Amino acid sequence: MTSFLLIISFLLHLVLFMIIFYLYQHIQTIKSDQTKEIEDLLNNFLREIKLENKNLRNPINHFEYQNDSNRYVQKKSESEEQAQISLKENENKKDIALDRLNSTSKTSITNKPDKIETSMHSQVNYLYEQNYTVEEIAKQLNCSTTEVQLLIKFNET
Q: How many degrees, rounded to 5, is the angle at CA 136 between CA 131 and CA 138?
């Protein structure tokens, strides 16, 4: 009878080790997939930055510094037209993207000044630090004394 139980125990252990090994392999593949995704994302981001830098460098290279007049003068070159064309294309793409964004956005952008409100917790703490009593704080903030006491205790801990 004990030999039978030992055999069953051995088989169960073997099955469990196989399952653990399978799960370990599965976790490793998931980690490698995530690393590849992150690498691809960073490579794409790097390519975009390089392209943007190239587009910004082109107009800058068309100017040369003159020492005698202490100013920058535009160089005469053939690639100037190409740079202007690529800049115009980029501006058009940005305008199209902004138009799409503005047409799909449901919220309107307003020029209203931001309203800053302090929380009840910070108001209670401020008044408590100014040596107001719990009852005075509760009366001033239109809340219960229990709530004020609770907020003060939160701040003390």
A: 115
For the chain, percent of residues with pLDDT exceeding 90: 25
Please tell me whether residues 29 and 61 are part of one structural domain: yes
How many residues would you count in the chain?
157
pLDDT tens for each residue of 114-155: 777 788 888 888 899 899 999 999 999 999 999 899 888 888
- Whether 86 and 151 map to the same domain: the answer is no
Terminal CA-CA length for the chain: 61
Query: Rounded to the nearest 5°, which phi and psi values hold at 18?
Result: -65, -40
Q: Hey, what amino acid is at 72? A: Y
124: Cβ contacts below 8 Å, ≥ 6 apart: 137, 141, 148, 151, 152, 155
pTM attached to this predicted model: 0.31
CA distance 122 to 124: 5
155 neighbors 134 (Cβ within 8 angstroms): no
Domain of residue 151, residue span: 120-156
